[in-house]
Hints:
Layout: H1 2-38, H2 44-53, H3 55-64, H4 70-90, E1 96-101, E2 112-114, E3 117-119, H5 127-137, E4 141-145, H6 148-157, E5 162-167, H7 169-178, E6 185-188, H8 201-207, H9 210-239
Parallel strand pairs: 1-4, 1-5, 5-6
Antiparallel strand pairs: 2-3
Pfam families: DUF116
InterPro entries: DUF116
Protein name: DUF116 domain-containing protein
Amino acid sequence: MFHQYFFEIIGQIAFIIVISLFVLLILALVLGVVLVKKKILIFPKIVIFALDFLYSPLKYLTKTLGFNEVMVDQIGVEIRNKINENNFKEKDNKNKIIVFPHCLRHENCPAKLGEMGLKCSECGLCSIGEIKPKAEEIGYNIFIVPGSTFIKKIVKNHKFESVLGIACYEDLNISMMNLSNFSPQGVLLSRTGCFKTDVDVQTVLEKIGYEKKIGNISKNQNMTLNNEISVCQNEKDSKYL
Length: 241
């Protein structure tokens, strides 16, 4: 009698847990779609919890409902970009890194593989060579990695506070999940695949604040120049008084 009652209670608890998880998955999916479609952030912690701890069931549910399972990764990237945006911007550029996937490299890329990834020679054959010098100009450190093993090496051997990743949605979401302590931001490849991929250069430059930073530098230089001209003009005028 006691055993029967005990197993009934266990069954009821298990049923409640399963139903609760199902409701949580549906809620996370709905809230994620609202974010992607309407750009409205609602209960982000619930969505992040579901994405982090129920990633595989959520992808299975999405596929079962007839949607593209990549949508789960898209939601993950969008919501992490949104909640980490301000923290990312507030960090000093010298404490930020950009991680490029090696699939962006040109087929004739002359870069050699080193301990921390590919060593870009800025040959100009791919978008990395266009972004790298501009990003380094404003303080960013650049890494080009063939896989997640190199990211682990970077985390272990380099001190940084924020990271910008460039990849397809699935790789971006998983990487941002693993690097959640570093205020991650992500930029989707404009052409995905395993080879000859591409990324919108302007989108990356805007994400790292390149044009704004350069604009501020130019503004400060102009102010300095104007001050110097004013001083020279005042000294010249004083000679004639």
